[in-house]
Amino acid sequence: MTKEALKEKLAEFKIQRDAKETEIEKCKETIKQTNLEIKIKKNELKNIISEAKILKSSYKKQEM
Fold it and tell me: Which chain positions lie within coiled-coil regions (predicted)?
């Protein structure tokens, strides 16, 4: 293998490595966004549960 061929091969590997690193960063960003969405959905669920409890307690007070 000549020095030029080695340089070309190393350049190809660098391009591949950079592409994979970019993919990894995109995946990390997607994971962050998904985790944020999960937190938001959990909070929405808690709000719904709280509203249901308030509705039940106000209904019970009405019956008394």
Answer: 3-51
